[in-house]
Design goal:
10 helices; 6 strands; about 230 residues; 6-stranded parallel beta sheet
Length: about 230
């Protein structure tokens, strides 16, 4: 006999958000809805990881921008250490620099904070059923990204060098191809300030001093091929 909606056990949920009012509001909202049981609340990513280890929840509702350990890193740790717990991102931000790192880290759902309680509950149960719990706006963004021409190449084998993230590697590849910060921003659909942040981070990790060194580094690591002909 299959389990009906009424017989289904409530999903055990941990809420992670650094803003106390928001965190308590989400906990209160979910407490009024069937199908979920809030078993813990965390004020940052470090606490979220610790609570998952202690409580073994089914799902974490994860904010992204938190102190000590942000939501992406917390998601990565949880999925690596506690694969029985799924992560649904619940954040204010739906830009590429928030969305794609979270999904790469292992989040199965992604909602913005204008989602209603019923939508949150649906996303929680969707990820527990093996489906993705994505808001309609996020689904549209993913389709737009997939339909874009000229995808940015990234290394096909192994890990990115020197601990670079996927986005930092993408930026490095485009520097190696000779693009300016403004051109990189347009290609990746992010702000110029975001590009500068990625460049500063990849320079710090690799010890590079300027763009000329970055170009040589990209060639030496096989990220960019010399032009032929």
């Amino acid at each position: 006999m299959t389990e009906t909606e009424g017989e289904r056990k409530p999903a055990r949920v941990v809420v992670a958000d650094d803003q106390t009012v928001v965190r308590e509001g989400i906990v209160m909202l979910l407490g009024l809805l069937p199908g979920v049981e809030v078993v813990g609340a965390a004020g940052d990513g470090e606490e979220a990881v610790r609570l998952v280890g202690e409580l073994a929840p089914d799902v974490v509702l994860m904010d992204l921008r938190m102190p000590r350990c942000d939501g992406v890193e917390a998601t990565r740790r949880i999925r690596a250490q506690y694969p029985g717990t799924q992560v649904v991102v619940l954040t204010t931000y739906a830009d590429d620099d928030s969305l794609f790192p979270a999904l790469r880290a292992g989040a199965r759902g992604y909602l913005t904070k204008d989602a209603g309680g019923d939508e949150i509950v649906r996303a929680v149960h969707s990820v527990l059923s093996g489906d993705a719990g994505l808001s309609l706006s996020v689904q549209r963004r993913l389709l737009e990204r997939l339909s874009q021409a000229d995808p940015v190449p990234v290394p096909a084998v192994g890990e990115a060098p020197d601990g670079l993230t996927t986005r930092e590697t993408e930026v490095l590849v485009l520097i190696g191809e000779g693009l300016t910060n403004q051109e990189i921003a347009r290609r990746l659909h992010v702000s110029t300030a975001t590009v500068k942040t990625h460049i500063n981070n990849l320079f710090a990790k690799t010890g590079l001093k300027d763009r000329a060194q970055a170009v040589r580094y990209a060639y030496s690591k096989g990220l960019v091929r010399p032009p032929t002909g």
